[in-house]
From TrEMBL:
<feature type="domain" description="HMG box">
    <location>
        <begin position="4"/>
        <end position="72"/>
    </location>
</feature>
<dbReference type="GO" id="GO:0003677">
    <property type="term" value="F:DNA binding"/>
</dbReference>
<dbReference type="InterPro" id="IPR050342">
    <property type="entry name" value="HMGB"/>
</dbReference>
<dbReference type="InterPro" id="IPR009071">
    <property type="entry name" value="HMG_box_dom"/>
</dbReference>
<keyword id="KW-0539">Nucleus</keyword>
<dbReference type="InterPro" id="IPR036910">
    <property type="entry name" value="HMG_box_dom_sf"/>
</dbReference>
<dbReference type="GO" id="GO:0005634">
    <property type="term" value="C:nucleus"/>
</dbReference>
<feature type="coiled-coil region">
    <location>
        <begin position="43"/>
        <end position="81"/>
    </location>
</feature>
<keyword id="KW-0175">Coiled coil</keyword>
<dbReference type="Pfam" id="PF00505">
    <property type="entry name" value="HMG_box"/>
</dbReference>
<feature type="DNA-binding region" description="HMG box">
    <location>
        <begin position="4"/>
        <end position="72"/>
    </location>
</feature>
<keyword id="KW-0238">DNA-binding</keyword>
<protein>
    <submittedName>
        <fullName>Nonhistone chromosomal protein lg, putative</fullName>
    </submittedName>
</protein>
């Protein structure tokens, strides 16, 4: 079985939640433009709003770390994989 996946960062959680809303506001924008807009929104977001996503990330990270420990106890350490870029 595959090891557990790393959790999404707080920005990616924000992006995931706001993608459709931004896409509806800018239906003709390219994906790169949408991501730039969301990155700008993230920069301007209040500390309270960012804390919401950082809290979600912290919870997901704790769960991931626990799942990783359980996986390693059952299957051993995960072998590092070479990046596809270096091949």
């Amino acid at each position: 079985p595959l090891p557990p996946k790393r959790p999404l960062s707080s920005f990616f959680l924000f992006k995931q939640e706001n993608h459709e809303k931004v896409k509806k506001q800018h239906p003709n924008a390219r994906i790169t433009q949408l991501i730039s807009m969301m990155a700008e929104q993230w920069k301007k977001a209040s500390i309270q709003e960012k804390q919401k996503y950082e809290g979600q990330y912290a919870e997901a990270k704790a769960k991931y770390e626990q799942e990783l420990i359980e996986y390693q106890n059952k299957y051993g350490k995960i072998k590092s994989q070479k990046s596809k870029r270096n091949k």
